[in-house]
Amino acid sequence: MDDGRINYATDDATNFNNPVNMVKGSGLLDPVEADLGTTWYDLFSNYNDGNRFWRFEDGTMSAVWIYGTAASQFPERGTGYNYYDGTAWGPAPTMRIENTRTGWPNISSWGDGEMGVAHNGSDGLEFIKREVKGTGEWTQWNFLGPAGIESSLTWPRMVASGVNNEYTHLFSPTNAEYAGQIEAVVYSRSDDGGETWDPHNVVLPEMGEENYREVVHDCYALASNGPHIGLVYSNITADLFYMISHDNGETWERVVVWEHPIPFYDPAVQFIDTVFCPDRSGHMAIDNDGHVHVVFAITRYQNSEATGAVTYPYHPDWEGIVYWNDEMEPFSNDLNALAPPKAGQANSELIEGVNYIGEIQDVDGSGTIEFEGILPLRCTGISTWPAIHVDDQGRRFLIFSSVTETFVYTGGSEPQNYRHIWARGYENGSWGEFMDLNTNIAHVFDDCVYPMIGN
């Protein structure tokens, strides 16, 4: 999303491994773009994105977003939708799909059709589906939470799996105390288009109170590939872990990528000065062999014993994008295990070009990162919202949003730097050059955020 527009970009003209002069940015390798629609509702997520972009096997695509034009209460808020038929995207929508106010939409394949889910904010979730993707009327129905908190489900995530994408997997936080946790995430699965669910609103083993005080809303992302389904969880107050199933959700396993230094950490009563940790944004991909690839952004976190204040100090040496896969050793629980190499911490476990693969760029070539200020983004880091894809040849593609030098917003009380979407590719054992996907003059005054790669 940039400047109220929902943009789609292909790599038709872009090889992420091409050497690119990021200082001059000629625009000769600008990606092909299309405007899918507009919105004035800026908060697409508190932290992580949902699954809002689905690419079908025949090359067609569906995209959804939070549609809203009537500030500031947005009574017409709901799911904006557009479809690519293999040749062109459809016209921009002028209204939501649902018959009630919703937010936080997801879209996925379902057999020959497609299915979506969003929350309504007062009475659980709203599902939509249709038998044929891209055309026909939508069927809508309500989905409620566990007994006693039926109306509280919010901020859902959904993905499909199976040979014909016949399995629908739903994760949603309770937004209320449940099963011994301040907030829990419950899982449901359907193999008949949402007619029945089994399991239904369960806390998966090892995601419950035995390991975590809470599983916080919007700190998770889903991925699937064939029978493989995964959820990655990234937060400042708990382990960075993922749940993985290799059998369409029959069984699940938890894998801890980074162990938080303080188990069951409660920032109100436990104090830490300071720790390099995930910034709450992360993403995962599952390759054709079922291997898991995780990316997440890092920040530095501290809370004051004297005042209880929590701070996320923004410094160009305390940020970046981390890569990990299931053939690597997990990170330790050292306070500086996730310190970027440029931070100069002796106990850092990050290596440039190996598991530290993204960071703010020196666009003007001065040798120093210089920015005016940062537009507020719910406490995420300087470089944040990474997304990763692994193709059939094992090549990896990374995108992320980062504060970008020389592009400055001056319309407020203080100048602040815009964000651009940056990309990088991995092939033949090494990561290529960084590429700014927003060098086109059309993006000079755009804050480019919430990037995602289609499932």
Provide an overview of this structure:
The protein is mainly β. It has 2 domains: 49-209, Neuraminidase; 218-245 and 259-455, no CATH class. Helix content is 0%, strand content 38%. Strands 17, 18, 19, 20 and 21 form a 5-stranded antiparallel sheet that branches. β18 (292-303) and β19 (310-311) form a beta hairpin. The protein is globular and about 55 Å long. The protein starts with a strand and ends in a 19-residue tail after the last strand.
Q: How many runs of DSSP E, i.e. beta strands?
A: 26
Average of per-residue pLDDT values: 92
Number of helices: 0
Structural class: mainly beta
What percentage of amino acids are in beta strands? 35-45%
Order of helices and strands: EEEEEEEEEEEEEEEEEEEEEEEEEE
Tell me the span between the first and last alpha carbons: 18 Å
Can you give the helix content as a percent range?
under 10%
Record keyword descriptors for this entry.
about 450 residues, mainly beta, Neuraminidase, 2 domains, 5-stranded antiparallel β-sheet, 26 strands, about 40% strand, globular
Quick take:
This protein has strands at residues 5-10, 32-38, 53-55, 61-67, 78-84, 103-110, 113-119, 125-130, 139-143, 157-161, 167-173, 185-190, 220-225, 228-233, 240-245, 253-258, 273-286, 292-303, 310-311, 320-325, 356-358, 383-390, 396-409, 416-427, 430-431, 435-436. It has 455 residues and is an all-beta fold.
What's the topology here?
Elements: E1 5-10, E2 32-38, E3 53-55, E4 61-67, E5 78-84, E6 103-110, E7 113-119, E8 125-130, E9 139-143, E10 157-161, E11 167-173, E12 185-190, E13 220-225, E14 228-233, E15 240-245, E16 253-258, E17 273-286, E18 292-303, E19 310-311, E20 320-325, E21 356-358, E22 383-390, E23 396-409, E24 416-427, E25 430-431, E26 435-436
Antiparallel strand pairs: 1-2, 3-4, 4-5, 6-7, 7-8, 8-9, 10-11, 11-12, 13-14, 14-15, 15-16, 17-18, 18-19, 18-20, 20-21, 22-23, 23-24, 24-25, 24-26
